[in-house]
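Blinded run. Sample ID left blank on purpose so nobody reads anything into the name before looking at the predicted structure. Input follows.
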Amino acid sequence: MINLKEIRIKKGLTQKELADAINLSQETISQYEIGNRTPSIVVARKIAEVLGVSLDNIFFGSDISK
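Blinded prediction complete.
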């Protein structure tokens, strides 16, 4: 999730706030951001929904579906 941290910060959310919004731990969000873990597609969709962006934007840096 190469852009997760950047997008999260731009949206004004802390790791804890994002984690709370999708019922995960702050540590899990941290692990996603540094690349040690990859979320399931269900969790990735929840993250995208909370952040108001596409999955493509989080994973690839732009909305490649356009």
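Unblinding after everyone has recorded impressions. The chain has one domain: 4-58.
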